[in-house]
Amino acid sequence: MAAHQEKKLAEERKHQNMQNNTKASQGQWGRAWEVDWFSLASILFLLMFAPLIVYYFIMSCDQYQCSLTDPLLDLLTGNKHLSDIWNRTPMLTYRAAGIYSLWVTFQVVLYVAIPDFCHKFLPGYVGGVQEGAVTPAGVVNKYEINGLQAWIITHVLWFANASYFHFFSPTIIFDNWIPLLWCANILGYAVSTFAMIKGYFFPTNAKDCKFTGNFFYDYMMGIEFNPRIGKWFDFKLFFNGRPGIVAWTLINLSFAAKQQELYGEVTNSMILVNVLQGIYVLDFFWNEAWYLKTIDICHDHFGWYLGWGDCVWLPYLYTLQGLYLVYHPVQLCTAHAVGVLLLGLLGYSIFRMTNHQKDLFRRTNGNCRIWGKKPEYIECSYVSVDGTKYYSKLLTSGFWGWARHFNYTGDLMGSLAYCLACGFEHILPYFYIVYMTILLTHRCVRDEHRCCSKYGKDWKRYTAAVSYRLLPGIF
Ligand code: NDP
């Protein structure tokens, strides 16, 4: 009898432990399970206003030479009505719908139908089938990494057309910029809505879904962790990288072509923006396998935030500098241009080296050298949903000993350089640095909150060892 009771008690304890583990670990990944009023208010604000913000910026360039204040002044003084502005806005056209459908279809084909060949001849490049990080349910997804190849093929065709075939003008993107905005919105909303329905009715991995019970929160932040169609069409990898990031450099090229058409020359500021942002985009595709281990793929669920954000916010607002320079062809003096170039390259180098240090450290499980020395680190552990205990390490030397997110600091320096390339006449091109500062600061807080619940006291030891987030001695 006593033995039977003892066994029952032990089983209850085990069950209790499992539940505690599950509770603890469910808080570790992705977004919250319970929605506080501040998060809900922010989400409602973004759902309502983010599309308007994008429209406002693009309309300001189209109708007000990129002045952000003039439309407001016109409206406030009664000089213009909302209907006047709206009536002057280009609507959706068949041509734009055709271009956009062709564009997205082409990127889907490049993504699913052409296995990577770049890794076979490019030394140091990691492509082909790669594994992602362990998901909360303990799943390790496989990905076909072929973004660099998609980017190269797309750009070779672009240049072949621009210099030889002339099937379409390289200004095609600029010339259809607002009609294409409507297409991007349609895709953004369609994919987010589809992802929500899929999360409820046919999720790829039910154990990796999160439901808060709040419709708006679930729609915005996503339910499914890694929604897929078939074995290989991964929503997060596709929408994050293409069509948005492949398009980024093409959009800039189209803006440069428009400058050439309008003014007979391409300014040094436009070249700087094309080159610096081009390096950033190329870096993204060269390191696409590394990208599988970043927060977007490892921790965020797929909802409107990623779906609409990748289709609309990214291609339209990350390219504001190039758009601005079409309306204001700034020619920088040599000192200014060199300063911008140096800041951009320094920011990029810090961004890349910091990310590389963490990647190398994690890949080799600490058996590597950081700045010529054995890495210093803190041992930590965490538990997945099924109760399995995992061990990990947090690097505390190299750039990771200076601040907990020095990669963000480098990114912000590069972002500032793009803005500075546009001179000081208008605030519109500076939106990017303001946005990136908010995004990455919020990310710091969000990521640290998650890491704290994931690693518990180990995370506290880490923050005691590396006390600053972005700027050593300041923040
Ligand atoms: P990180 O690459 O910094 O990844 C954060 C994760 O790394 C943490 O959740 C933790 O994950 C792990 N980690 C944290 N500290 C350490 C440490 N000391 N040692 C080892 N591992 C650690 O963040 P992101 O994924 O957000 O960003 C990646 C890059 O992308 C950044 O350079 C950022 O600037 C850039 N970025 C650019 C954006 C843009 O719009 N241009 C948007 C977002 C990011 P774990 O659970 O594995 O421990």
Explain this structure to me?
This protein has 22 helices and 6 strands. It is mainly α. The protein has 2 domains: 90-331, no CATH class; 332-474, no CATH class. It has a two-stranded antiparallel sheet with strand order 1-2. Strands 3-4 form a two-stranded antiparallel ribbon. Strand 1 (128-134) and strand 2 (140-145) form a beta hairpin. The protein is globular. It starts with a helix and ends in a 10-residue tail after the last helix. Mean pLDDT is 90; it is low at 1-31. Bound molecules: NADPH dihydro-nicotinamide-adenine-dinucleotide phosphate. NADPH dihydro-nicotinamide-adenine-dinucleotide phosphate binds at residues 294-295, 351, 355, 358, 362, 392, 394-395, 400, 405, 407-408, 411, 443, 447, 451, 454. Residues 1-15 have a biased composition (Basic and acidic residues). One of its GO terms (biological process) is cholesterol biosynthetic process. It catalyses: 7-dehydrodesmosterol + NADPH + H(+) = desmosterol + NADP(+); cholesterol + NADP(+) = 7-dehydrocholesterol + NADPH + H(+).
